[in-house]
Design goal:
The chain has 302 residues and is an alpha/beta fold. It contains 12 helices and 10 strands. The structure holds 3-hydroxybutanoyl-coenzyme A. Residues 198-282 form the 3-hydroxyacyl-CoA dehydrogenase C-terminal domain.
């Protein structure tokens, strides 16, 4: 049975956070953890270069906050001191909350948690930021799958108010309660979702993004789909949203939904090719869109 109602009384106290994966998403939520939980945050990845890149990105975000006057010098120094990087997972041994945001490949995530479980204590909560893999499948080989929960952030992490907390059939009440309290402490509103492909948000978004890609792949120009969908009142058009989440991630999300529900979702081969190319829009040096990238248009036309 899924865990019952979460309760703040059951939540575990978090005194140290471990983050696996030092990419774009992880660097964004690392900053949030350090600012809001106010505890040491250690970030790891498969090599020193990736770790350094992630840590540098977090450090410059802290500098930016200070430059904008959002935090003072003391706070900035405090945050900088709480952030560290490592290539040695043993540095997670005293963490009470470990979250991963590595490549969206089931076996990669399973291996990550197998390694994490070797070093952390039995009471450490494990969380995955997977966007569409099964949390149950990610935890299948764990010695203690009851302490695994989905904790799905949205881009841009600092701005988007929601976290989806994914409750598997074996997640226990302490874990679920801890996740809800962590989300609240991070300043996010949380919803508890079932462990179903795409949870709630990506299930809805995959429909929109998949249909938009299908329209261009079947001959409707990018401009037309973009203009036609703009009046929906969403802050971004489907193609802007695809660039924001990353074209590779977007293509992966569509693949996962198509695999789960082939009659309901499109996969997009063209989106994979666009991901290789790296962009849909032609942008100026400030990132403002000038129009659609000519090569992207040619790629979709085949
Ligand atoms: N990274 C970090 N911060 C960003 C950002 C980015 N890429 N883009 C904008 N921001 C910040 C700005 O710094 C600004 O913060 P401030 O007020 O503290 O200075 C704030 O967001 C508002 O920015 P702007 O006024 O410049 O821009 P907009 O009002 O146009 O808002 C937006 C930008 C918040 C990104 C808005 O367009 C939006 O909400 N877009 C939709 C995003 C969305 O749907 N995300 C979900 C994607 S799905 C996902 O992530 C799931 C995954 O699993 C696939």
């Amino acid at each position: 049975h899924p865990a019952g109602a979460p309760s703040a009384d059951l939540a575990k106290k978090i005194t140290k956070v471990g983050i696996v994966g030092a990419g774009l998403m992880a660097s964004q939520f690392a900053l949030l953890f350090v600012r809001k939980l106010k505890v040491p945050v250690v970030i790891t990845d498969i090599d020193q270069a990736r770790v350094d890149k992630g840590v540098t990105s977090i450090r410059s975000s802290i500098d930016e906050l200070q430059a904008k006057g959002r935090i003072n010098a003391d706070e900035s120094n405090r945050l900088q001191a709480l952030i560290s990087g490592t290539t040695d997972i043993a540095d997670f041994s005293d963490a009470d909350w470990v979250i991963e945001a590595v490549f969206e490949e089931l076996q990669v995530k399973r291996d990550v948690f197998a390694n994490v479980e070797r070093v952390v204590s039995e009471s450490c909560v494990l969380a995955t930021n997977t966007s569409s893999l099964s949390v149950t499948a990610i935890g299948a080989d764990l010695a203690h799958p009851e302490r695994l929960v989905g904790f799905h952030f949205f881009n841009p992490v600092a701005v988007m108010p929601l976290v989806e907390v994914v409750n598997t059939d074996v997640t226990d009440e302490e874990t679920l309660s801890t996740a809800m309290v962590v989300a609240k402490t991070l300043g996010k509103s949380a919803v508890i979702t079932r462990d179903a492909p795409g949870f709630v948000v990506n299930r809805v978004l995959a429909k929109l993004l998949g249909e938009a890609m299908h329209a261009v792949e079947t001959g409707t120009p990018f401009e037309v789909v973009d203009r036609a969908t703009a009046p929906f009142g969403l802050p971004m058009t489907p193609f802007e949203l695809l660039e924001l989440v990353g074209l590779t991630v977007g293509a992966h999300v569509l693949d996962t939904h198509h695999a789960a529900f082939p009659d309901r979702f499109f996969e997009s081969e063209a989106l994979h090719r666009l991901a290789e190319h790296g962009r849909i829009f032609d942008r100026d040096s400030k990132g403002k869109r000038r129009g659609f990238d000519k090569k992207a248009v040619a790629i979709v036309a085949g």
